[in-house]
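Table S2 (text version). Query chain:
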Amino acid sequence: MKTIVHKAGTRGFANHGWLQANHSFSFAGWFNPERIHFGALRVLNDDVIAPKMGFGTHPHDNMEIITIPLSGELKHRDSMHNEWQSVLPGEVQVMSAGTGVQHSEINGSVDSHLSLFQIWVIPNKQGVSPRYDQKTFSDSERKNKLQTLVTSIDDNHDGSLKMHQDAKLSRIDLSQGETFTYNLKSSNHGVYVMTIYGDIIIGDQNLETRDAIGVSETESFSIETKQDSELLFIEVPMITL
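Corresponding structure-token output:
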């Protein structure tokens, strides 16, 4: 089993006043030549956005963009929809930028901060028609069991959002003292595990809140919890750039 550990404090950090941004991979003004991507996973940003603030209209193309609000209210508008749409904790949003899309993202609250993960996955198809979707996922459905959030548009998996890549995003909330085994899709895949909250052990690594580990070249691996923990799994083909 091959692993790469990214401790929370080693991430890139940018303080824009209205935006506190942590970058697991090189992004915007932060560049680390050893942290460009993990397979097809290109971006994992951990953002906190001040009330009423956000990102003005900007373009994307040929990228699968997944947003997971953790607290607060995200409001989204894009060139496919004229009206603002709310995305709340418990929901997941997927946008295939494809041939090109313009969008805006703001904190929909006037008095509370917005915390979210934004994830970019390199697609396996270029120039597709832009598409947008969002879905609510109950936290009760991931208590000590894997909850699948996003899968390939080519997979016959019911209940998940879709993206243009042979990848899978999932979450689990594990109780203290639980052990969980994660099984990979294939020998060509790797999994980037983000500890949203908690304290876990994978192999010989102890991972706490916002620590992450990339696991590849294995069929499966086990997770032990030292306290109640919430985990995000981003499984992707181990492509090279």
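Notes on Table S2: The domain at 2-237 is CATH 2.60.120.10 (Jelly Rolls). The mean pLDDT is 96.
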